[in-house]
Specification:
By secondary structure, the chain is mainly alpha-helical. It has a domain of 106 residues: 23S rRNA-intervening sequence (de novo design (two linked rop proteins)), CATH 1.20.1440. It is built from 7 helices and no strands. The N terminus is likely disordered.
């Protein structure tokens, strides 16, 4: 059982779903530490669609950049990794916190950079099936990150 599930389960015995995240320390940062952090909404990173999309985009980047110029490949690789890591970092912050919104805006920015680099690669003549798939995945990452950000900007009504 992941650490987050065990902590959340123990806390839920004496707290409601709304107050449990307040009792969990959310001081961890980065993708590596986020795996072990207590994430209020998700038992693991794999349960967050935005993170899974960012990770899929990063994997597609690795496959697509083999024939690209080194500088473009490196910038695309770094932007994809940044989107994934920053999404994981966002999960360590409270759902309505400024920190989560900042991380998600940064992740969206990185995902848009990936899409821009894909457009640049296409303009430079590197179009192929991998590039089409990468463009689709980058767009999906942007969309899911934007929905995740939207979900963190307003509280859920008590009657819901």
């Amino acid at each position: 059982m992941p650490l987050a599930s065990g902590v959340a389960g123990a806390l839920s015995e004496c707290r409601t779903d709304r107050t449990s995240p307040l009792a969990i320390s959310l001081a961890c940062h980065g993708a590596l530490r986020a795996v072990h952090a207590a994430m209020a909404e998700f038992a693991s990173l794999e349960r967050c669609a935005a993170y899974v999309a960012a990770r899929a985009t990063r994997s597609a980047v690795q496959r697509a950049i083999a024939r690209w110029p080194e500088s473009l490949a490196d910038r695309t690789r770094r932007a994809a990794a940044c989107a994934m890591e920053t999404t994981a970092q966002a999960l360590t912050h409270d759902r309505l916190s400024v920190g989560r919104r900042r991380c998600l805006r940064d992740a969206i920015t990185a995902a848009v950079e990936v899409a821009a680099f894909v457009d640049l690669a296409r303009a430079m003549g590197f179009a192929n099936g991998d590039l089409d798939e990468l463009q689709r995945l980058a767009g999906r990452s942007i969309a899911l990150l934007a929905m995740f950000l939207h979900a963190t900007t307003s509280p859920i009504p008590d009657g819901a």
